Amino acid sequence: MTKMTLGSYPHMLGFEQLERLLERTAKSGNEGYPPFNIEQTSESSYRITLAVAGFGEADLSITVEDRQLVIRGRQREDTSDRVFLHRGIASRQFQRSFVLADGVEVGEAVMENGLLHIDLSLTRPDAVVQTINIRKG
Predict the structure, then answer these.
(1) 21: helix, coil or strand?
(2) Is there a cis peptide before residue 34, judged by omega within 30 degrees of 0?
(3) Which CATH architecture describes the domain 9-77+89-122?
(4) Residues in contact with 53: Cβ distance below 8 Å, sequence separation at least 6, in sequence order
(5) In sequence order, what are the beta bridge partners of 112?
């Protein structure tokens, strides 16, 4: 069976970058940690909430790389002489990625009760109608 790509559709021009973003997202390896919610907070805004219990603000980084929101968490090594009888709280690093459409801007990030909230806003450009003159060849 032949894999269909966006380039296979003759009426969809210039969507190669979108196809690359979709492939990159599929390969990003976002497993189930940490769990997250995405909610629509208004007609043009969203909020991503990640459960990051055990992480402090200094353990987290949020970047936008090539239209991709990337949240990374890395806890510092525990150098104390603590002896655990049971260790059920994960102390591992993570990376979560979200592809952002054109016009989506990342706002503020807030830590609250072990949850990291990241606000996003969508700005829709004004519709533009362009008339193309036809010249005699």
Answers:
(1) helix
(2) yes
(3) Sandwich (2.60)
(4) 89, 114
(5) 115
